Amino acid sequence: MHIPDNYLSPATCGTLVLAVAPVWTVAVIKVKAQIKQKRETLPMLGIAASLAFLIMMFNLPIPGGTTAHAVGGTLLAVLIGPWAAVLALTVTLLLQALLFGDGGILAFGANAFNMAVIMPMVGYACYRLGEKLHHPKIGLFVGAYLGINVAALVAGIELGLQPLLAHTASGAPLYCPYGLNVTVPAMLAAHLLVAGWVEAIFTVLVYQFVHKVAPTNLYQAAAPQSRRPWLYLLGGLAILSPLGLLASNTAWGEWSPAELKQRLVAEHISQQAPQGMVQGLHFKALFQDYTIGNLPISVGYILSAVTAVLIFLLLMRGLQHDSQTTK
Amino acid sequence: MTVKQPNNLPDWLQQPNQLTSQPQRHNFLAHNQQHLTHLLARLAQPAPAVNPTRWQLSPSISLIRLGILVLLIALTNNTIWLWVLGLLLAGHLLVLAPSQLRRFTRSWLLSTGIALVVVLPSYWLVGPATVLLFVCKTGLILASTQYYRLTTTFQDLLSGLKALHCPNLFIMTLAVAITYLRMLGHYLLQTMMALDMRLVAPAKHPYQLIGTLFGNLFLKSHAYALELYAAMEARGFNGQYVNQPTTTNRWHDYLTLTPYLVLVVVFIFGGIYGIN
Amino acid sequence: MALIELTDLSYDYPNTCGLDQLNLQLNAGEFICLMGPNGSGKSTLLRILSGLEPATHGTYAFDGQVITTDYLADPQDRQRLHQQIGLVFQNTDVQLFNTSVVDEVAFGPRQLGLSEAEITQRVEDCLALTHSTDLRDRVPYQLSGGEKKRVALASVLALNPKVLLLDEPLNGLTIAAQQQMLTLLKTLQAAGKTIIMASHNFKQVQAVEPRFVIFNADHQIQADLTAQELAKQPEQQAELLTL
């Protein structure tokens, strides 16, 4: 799943680095709190990074005689905590890009976004959910499977958007030449059918072993304290939102179906907009294309971002209240 | 507890084993052992492949140079530009010793070939020009990153990042990661060997074994972390990670960087934009 | 014919030499003690003898069969070799990977396709022989260094190997436990097993009168003597005492 250089346009790479930056910031804040409770977390970050490196290097046998390898994002999140896992996996990916040629240097942000943020977070969320339902192992299994597949899906989308985002005047793609109709199915097929199961089985077996032999070494989720890091994250995202303007024309992934179809037709990639997008996304966004009346486009962006943050906060608030009353 | 007299060996231990053998198709342990041995051999040689004594760049400059080069290659879609950048890169390659150059060429061709295979099916989608441009650019990027890897030790990378004002915590984590990659890798190799010695029949549940292998490895890394923290504290660790100052000629640095800076300026003001 | 025959055997690490031109014949039923300074090649030799790695040059023949790279690459041949040779690692942490001591010792016999009764028999016998019966339900990871050594030996013994290789088996044991270990090894030798161990503890090892194969710092065999011959060479003894 390591995206090499030149498959993603520099603008996409830059945007993704900026998208990951606030997550890293929150991770550092969260891990500092974790270090206060468990001091060995500090050296553990580096050691866990090398552990992740070895996991990604290890060839696992799969039926049919070939091999696959696990990424270990979810596993690490459960073993050392999700935020520490984000930092450790980031270090692993940086090492791989700079010293071992796995994954691109410009694409580092994209790879970090997919494998160091999405994968451990999705996986860990499922694990916690499973824990609440008193089936942590099932939660972990589902989490590992989902985590790697969501990461693969995002990687597929990042790659598949390139022909739409960056092309010559005549429509020839400058970076990854395959459209969404190729990259998403290719990434998903490989991960849904093989790599996802390998990851899930591997994750559960390692967890089971550690749980049996030394359960105290597992990461214990601390009781929820302040929500301040989340506020930092949201604030950072809101401030960064004008950067969406960096991407030329409309922000990627945010076309209306008609526009998407028009783009796809222009590039002779597909004569039809994907079915799901035609039928599934007919909701009217509050600020269509992020411009209201004659407002400058950047102000429109910021307003949209603030609105999104507020809605998100309200949702969180609602959920929080809910969980407290059910207790 | 009843202790048997050691001089009374049970019968089965006094008779030779009946040797059994069962067919086995794929030995994942042997495969991974080989893989890991290569990695450890690479990590055991921290010295750079090339060490030009007269023209040594400071680590931060070579890191910046790599960044500029990769960015320029990625941004442009002008063949003349690519040509110029290729020439610049080829000039650097001249510094390599012949054997290093051969090694470089071999692995560079291999990685570019893989990129070619991946992109080849798009020939029917977008035509030959795009494929050619893509392979050229990918090849150049791969060459520049590989050149960097070949001429930079891990220590240089660290001091380069340090000079570029990376946070200390991050640099320390990176340093710990590379040190413990060797230690954990060695431990994993030993564990696989021990497993191999006792795996006298094809494994019925290879995944179970792999789960225990990595479970053990995690426990070991946890133990290492505790030890390392104790050692850090014992040495008065205060969160600062200090690097040796590098002694290189700054004049050289700027001279080497000049062509790149000129290229960047030309690129920006030349009206040639990579993205339309 | 010797059980183990090494002819001009060398082993090279990527940058350094591991073993240099060894010629050695070891017979079935012998008790051999490899001695020498740190890094002189004892552990390397044990790894080659156990068939974990092929030698770089020269030949290694086990029971008349030359162990080549191809032989070791064949999973079936490799398994057959490992059924006859057991190795106790210097760092026993790497060797113990099961979740209980009983499972650890039963790991080998289970793969041999023995009946459950036979497996239980072997496990109990091996635990008793190594004085570890009281550890049976413990988690190997949480044992002390000396306990791990005993369990590691039990787990290798359960496979009933013809040749037992031990890398520094006495390290980390109390003097009493060292003597227990050596007595057990001597008994195994009396039952026809071949024991090859690397050790630093000349004083303790002397008691079981092994054949001493002594390495020098240049990774070559400096001397190959029986205990009786060594007794007549005080300088050599003095040297071994400083190891």
TrEMBL record, chain A:
For this protein, the record's PANTHER family field holds: METAL TRANSPORT PROTEIN HI_1621-RELATED (PTHR34229)
Keyword Cell membrane: yes or no? yes
Source organism: Lactiplantibacillus nangangensis
* Subcellular localization(s) per the UniProt record: Cell membrane
Q: Where mainly found?
A: membrane
This chain's protein is named Cobalt transporter CbiM
NCBIfam families noted in UniProt: PRK07331.1, PRK11909.1
| Transmembrane feature ranges | 7-29, 41-62, 74-99, 105-126, 138-157, 188-210, 230-252, 295-315
**Membrane topology, record value:** Multi-pass membrane protein
Keyword presence, Coiled coil: no
Q: Which InterPro entries match?
A: CbiM/NikMN, PDGLE_dom
PDGLE domain span = 233-318
* Keywords in alphabetical order: Cell membrane, Membrane, Transmembrane, Transmembrane helix, Transport
UniProtKB/TrEMBL annotation, chain B:
Its membrane topology: Multi-pass membrane protein
Q: Does the keyword Flavoprotein apply?
A: no
The stretch of residues making up the signal peptide is none
Its predominant location is membrane
Q: Where in the cell is it found?
A: Membrane
Q: Which residues cross the membrane?
A: 57-74, 108-125, 257-275
Q: Which Pfam families match?
A: CbiQ
Keywords on record: Cell membrane, Membrane, Transmembrane, Transmembrane helix
> What protein name does the entry list?
Energy-coupling factor transporter transmembrane component T
From TrEMBL, chain C:
Q: How does it sit in the membrane?
A: Peripheral membrane protein
| Principal cellular location given in the protein's record | membrane
Organism's domain of life?
Bacteria
In its keyword annotation, does this UniProt entry include ATP-binding? yes
UniProt domain ABC transporter: residue ranges:
4-243
Gene3D superfamilies for this protein = P-loop containing nucleotide triphosphate hydrolases (3.40.50.300)
> Listed GO molecular functions?
ATP binding
**CDD domains, A to Z:** ABC_cobalt_CbiO_domain1
TM ranges are none
For this UniProt record, give its keywords in alphabetical order, as a comma-separated list: ATP-binding, Cell membrane, Membrane, Nucleotide-binding, Translocase, Transport
What protein is this chain from?
A: Energy-coupling factor ABC transporter ATP-binding protein
